[in-house]
Specification:
Layout lengths: L9 E4 L3 H12 L5 E4 L4 H8 L5 E4 L13 E4 L6 H4 L11 E4 L6 H8 L4 E6 L9 E7 L5 H12 L2 E5 L6 H9 L1 H18 L4 H21 L4 H8 L5 H9 L5 H18 L3
Parallel strand pairs: 1-2, 1-4, 2-3, 4-5, 5-6, 7-8
Antiparallel strand pairs: 6-7
Helix pairs in contact: 6-11, 7-8
The chain binds 1,4-dihydronicotinamide adenine dinucleotide and (2S)-3,4-dihydro-2H-pyrrole-2-carboxylic acid.
């Protein structure tokens, strides 16, 4: 990540959950100026209000102030909106880097919407970006310069860790595993809470237990140097209670098979969203 006050002017297209998380991270990193295209302006306006004039929110591409010359165009709209929306940014993306976080949308597909000569980086962040603990995997298309890649690294690094891959095809399983990953973890909280209630634990206590157990385990994992399996084994006393639960969860047809199927389904969906 480059230092604070080094982020140049950025055009952000879409300021929902992920776009908003990115913008808020950039503001912390000393963003000089951004124009945000967002038709539902409330959240973007709230961020702009805290930006001391650094962020201007407009409803559509036609309202971008004349003369605004971003160094990166960041696409944070839904993949289904790409075909209608992205071509409006063909001119502004000329000579600068376009960073897309859209699930499934390929670098080749973006070239077809923007122009073949455009520099495109495709990336997949996740929602812990909102607390600067995101994990993003990025892939640079042909013609992206070292400086453009460094800028994208800084933009993504403002909200967490960044890893780069050469093979764009990896972005589909990445989308399944880390892009959607927080949802599976939150589902685990929901299921633990539900099971606790079924076993007679009062709802308020069940809720606190489930949330705190997952959040605390994540915090422990974050500071541990060892493998997750070692942390699991540290909980699992021989002939104890956890061992019984894990025998159910780790049966081949249980979590191992279910997680494989779920990740394959999400990977397939990412591939379907391509173009
Ligand atoms: N939510 C997540 O966990 C992740 C989402 N993504 C990707 O990020 C992108 C955005 O997802 P979210 O932030 O979750 O969706 P969202 O629905 O919260 O945000 C999308 C935003 O785009 C705005 N928008 C719609 N049409 C527009 C247009 N023509 N011009 C400008 N803005 C427009 C919407 O008003 C909305 O605020 C998607 O492509 C998704 O695949 C990537 C990683 C994780
Ligand atoms: O569900 C989705 O399509 C997006 C991509 C990863 C997380 N949310």
């Amino acid at each position: 990540m480059t230092g604070a006050a080094s982020l140049p002017p950025i055009l952000l297209v879409g300021c929902g959950r992920m776009g908003g998380a990115l913008l808020s991270g950039w503001l912390e990193q000393g963003l000089t100026r951004a124009v945000v295209v967002e038709p539902h302006a409330a959240a973007a306006e709230a961020l702009a209000a805290q930006s001391a004039g650094r962020v201007r929110v407009v409803p559509d591409a036609d309202s971008i102030p004349a003369g605004f010359a971003p160094e990166a165009v960041v696409l944070a709209i839904k993949p289904q909106e790409a075909a209608n929306t992205v071509p409006h940014y063909a001119a502004l993306s000329s000579g600068v880097v376009t960073l897309s976080i859209m699930a499934g949308r390929t670098i080749g597909g973006l070239h077809r919407l923007l122009g073949e000569a455009r520099a495109v980086v495709r990336a997949m962040p996740n929602t812990p970006a909102a607390v600067r603990q995101g994990f993003t995997v990025a892939c640079a298309g042909e013609g992206v310069t070292a400086g453009q890649r460094a800028l994208c690294d800084a933009l993504l690094g403002a909200v967490g860790e960044v890893a780069w891959v050469e093979d764009e095809a990896l972005l589909d399983p990445v989308t399944a595993v880390s892009g959607g990953g927080p949802a599976y973890v939150f589902l685990l909280v929901e299921l633990l809470q539900r099971a606790a209630e079924k076993l007679g634990i009062p709802p308020d206590l069940a809720r606190s237990m489930a949330r705190s157990t997952v959040a605390g385990s994540g915090a422990l994992l974050a500071v541990s140097r060892g493998e997750a399996a070692e942390l699991r084994q540290a909980v699992t006393s021989p002939k104890g209670t956890t061992e019984r639960a894990l025998a159910v969860l780790m049966a081949e047809e249980a979590w191992p098979a279910l997680v494989d199927r779920a990740m394959a389904a999400a990977t397939d969906r990412s591939r379907e969203l391509a173009e």
